[in-house]
Amino acid sequence: QVQLVESGGGLVQPGGSLRLSCAASGSIFSRNVMGWYRQAPGKQRELVATVTSGGRTSYADSVKGRFTISRDNAKSTVYLQMNSLRPEDTAVYYCNTDPFYRVYWGQGTQVTVSS
Fold first, then answer.
1. pLDDT value, residue 96
2. pLDDT above 80: residue 8
3. 85 in Cβ contact with 12 (< 8 Å)
4. 91 and 100 Cβ atoms separated by less than 8 Å
């Protein structure tokens, strides 16, 4: 019924950039805050950025100034522009609502930052 499909990950060198996309079923976008989450192997899943239906954004300290989250409500899509990538950004990145719904988790997209 509800699908969240992440794409855009890949392998980049430190300092590089990637743009992630999350295409969603329209039903969850109406008045929900959307977020990007990431999880590195053996580490706690963390919320890295959020965007409200009106476009207000919030960021984890670890990505502030480097990542930009945005949403296109007409296309039911949320984006994460990632610049100045660091090895510690390596993780599987997921989108979901904030607060998240377990049933909404997609497959995620792998981001690997390595020299």
1. 96
2. yes
3. yes
4. no
Structure confidence at residue 26 (pLDDT): 77
SS3 99: coil
Contacts of 76 (CB under 8 A, 6+ apart): 23, 24, 25, 26, 29
23 in Cβ contact with 76 (< 8 Å): yes
Higher pLDDT, 54 or 86: 86
Please, which pLDDT band fits residue 3 given cuts at 50, 70 and 90?
Answer: confident
- The predicted pLDDT at position 2 comes to 67
β-strand partners of 21: 7, 79
Going from the C-alpha of 18 to that of each of 8, 21, 44, 101, the distances in angstroms are 7, 10, 22, 26
109: part of which helix (H) or strand (E)? Answer: strand 109-113
Write out the two tokens for 52.
């409200």
